[in-house]
């Protein structure tokens, strides 16, 4: 495949892009052989990789569809895919002589591993359709094994949850490094025996005390191994996998079945591996086995940003690349730098280079970052303060000043500077947030430790707990004392006494409580404050406002309980709407990503669980909170409308104009107990000699030791080396933190934190910032060894219940009262109406309107204007039954649940897995939503078998699940194309999979409109002339493919729409 000769600079000129730097040009035009790109922070690696693909296509060296890109997160994969699609569309316009009709494949590493398993698992006798477990579900499997295990557990004094955690940790590391139980057993026995066989100097023969811990760890690891094996066996028998299993199986397939590598290399000519420093050993084996034979693989990464060692990443993989991916004929694998920062100003780069200096000797040459062509001078300020409270005050003052300076821009709806505070510990969030809010600065706590810890999701979960369990008093207290209801301590005490009274009525023998009944002590048997909320007793016991609020909450909960029979995802959405968190996040200007993610969790649980009850879901969430870091939250989105407070780990891949990095204090950042525990004393850790990256880890060498004393010295040397490795990991984290800032960087530390008896002082990182020339705002001297913590003398009391609005309450309350009055008061004067009564009035009015409409003369015809936007299914309905569509548009109502849509979705999900693609669907674009016949869920296997017998099974689509919006006759028509295949004659066929029966007559003529819309949309998306695009229905069960030859073109579809200027709706 050849094309025009063109330089990267000329290509950029044609596209109207800035010319690439010499470094970028070398990467873009690198030969088609293995290469490693060491891309520093902010060096434009995504744009450079997109430009490389563009250059390869433009010069005829690669077709778009023969390019594979892999990265870690769905967000990163989407960004790279969008960038590539945009550039290739531009290429088709700028250089129409270049054939670029296909699209690259961009996936996450895990999705690609899933694709390999889905297509080739049978080659290693594994069921390819195994269900994937979440971490919480894996914990539940392990729990069932541990709770029934009857094997020897000598020397194990852990509680069952600890045993479960250690079993999962050991199983995960064995998968990451492709280690079998036998290999681990042999290594552990050999280490134990080598220690206990050593003589002791002197007359004593007993084991030295400092060698007992390593020996005990070996014994415990040997006790855990049988449980690990039972856990793996239980998953195999149940037909389930966790993420570690999936990756290990993919690596095993790739390394043992040569044919798989041949197929993948024939499919992809060019492979891009993003964030390669974060790959694990299993991912290395997978990639090397498939593409290591001199294939054109480009690995992109930065060893200075390898911060995920705690979850299996190996920074050594980048160093190993040149030896693992050698060029054909033994040629040298190129190392190409990208060291010009297009993000950071000069002073910030000075700090970054100072911090990264000890990291650059990493096996690959890492160049200092240098200033980009548009870079400015920048600002770096630093301070060392007496106390952590003083530090928070300084950071809040600095940010408030910046916020005030940007106020004029925000006043005219322009964006101000984006600001973030990146903390090492989540425990610092509250202190920083309080200080910022006190200065009127809006704050968003982004990374609170998991989805279940986000405030909006916590309120939804607490409400679900109260609905499901009358003993969930803690959940009700969370709601009562939260920002919405704010019930004070006296009313809570009265509620608790009411609960005790109800319990005594149920059990007259119960003793009488005194007036100091605790809210948090052991409750009276069967006493439930949830029950008391439903039966508050005499009103005089409560304050007037407290009584009103508790009655309103009780009514709200009763309404929700009446709807508990609804499907779980619908119930979660109902709770979200009822308690108002959906409105709150929008009113606060915060993205609703966490609420959407929680709805996804409920939907996934409903699909995967054997019994999807509310109680089972809450039990799952309890496990997830403990064992899955509270579930993964939604993606972080940079928002310039508020200051975002998050951890450094969560900030990777993001950037802000202004960044504050607090806590650069000794034993805080770097953390005192940094990553890299001493494996020799931890039974749950895989011994370093068995790890795939052992060459880059501290070594324990007992071959030359002569006695126990020398052995203890060697273990102490290993411990020091592991600590040093942990400090380097913390330094990488500090490098990531400071390189998030574009223009302003604030760094600080302190001498005294809360609850400490000895002063701490600046960490080595704050010293580096100072040495790099930061402007020093304050540098407090050492208080001395006899100093007392001044924070011990501060009264830390706070008012309760906490008012989140503070000084803003009066104004917001007044505005809310005006809205309520305008919305709920009917004509005429009425008395004060409570919240739940107003809602009842609104429901009553709606019912009366619906009844009046129903009783109106049925022959009345009303013209219904077409909306400006239609789905494809609505376009089909326009052809089939315009009157029915008119009624749906005029009075939208929930559609009857359609089992067929779910069945079609199940089949499409299988196809997506087979093709290695899984994309989100719009609610009205569910596969099968326009089908007309039904098949049993039990027929899914038969459908799969029928598809595999069709001619389509042997073909590879160029695109799957393509969303589109097309303008037809003045309307925007949106939909989703199931699959697109390239034809031998250079044309393309759009295929829509149908799981139902084939329609006839008028129904078929209406359905064909769907194909016409898909054909026109794909022509517009791909730039392919419409006459070269075919379209077909494939009816899976019958194996029949229907490809009409007289499909409407764009003008024909416009005529269909234009022929009905208004719909007659009865």
The major pleated sheet works out as: 7 strands, parallel
The geometry reads as: globular
| Radius of gyration of CA atoms, rounded to a whole number | 32 Å
What is the CATH topology assignment of the largest domain? Rossmann fold
Binned strand content: 5-15%
Instruction: Count every helix, treating DSSP H or I runs of 4 or more residues as helices.
Output: 37
Uncertain runs are 510-526, 826-836, 895-903, 918-937, 1061-1066
Mean pLDDT: 81
Number of domains: 5
**Which class best fits the helix and strand makeup?**
alpha/beta
Helix content: 40-55%
What is the CATH architecture descriptor of the largest domain? 3-Layer(aba) Sandwich
Distance between the termini: 61 Å
**Total E-strand runs:** 25
Q: State the CATH class of the largest domain.
A: Alpha Beta
Major sheet: arrangement of strands: 13-14-12-15-16-11-17
CATH superfamily of the largest domain: P-loop containing nucleotide triphosphate hydrolases
Question: What's the short story on this structure?
Answer:
The protein is an alpha/beta fold and 1066 residues long.
What does this protein look like?
This protein is α/β, with parallel strands linked by helices. The protein has 5 domains: 8-124 and 246-338, P-loop containing nucleotide triphosphate hydrolases (Rossmann fold, 3-Layer(aba) Sandwich); 131-201 and 208-238; 379-447 and 639-676 and 734-779, P-loop containing nucleotide triphosphate hydrolases (Rossmann fold), CATH 3.40.50.300; 451-504 and 526-628, PCRA, domain 4 (Orthogonal Bundle), CATH 1.10.486; 869-1059, Lambda Exonuclease, Chain A. The protein is built from 37 helices and 25 strands. The strands form 6 sheets. A 7-stranded parallel beta sheet has the order 13-14-12-15-16-11-17, sandwiched between helices. Strands 3-2-6-7-1-8 form a 6-stranded parallel beta sheet, with helices on both faces. Strands 19, 20, 21, 22, 23 and 24 form a 6-stranded mixed beta sheet that branches. Strand 20 (959-968) and strand 21 form a beta hairpin. Helix 7 (160-176) runs parallel beside helix 10, helix 18 (455-468) packs across helix 19 (473-480) and helix 32 packs across helix 33 (882-890). The longest helix has 31 residues, at 708-738.
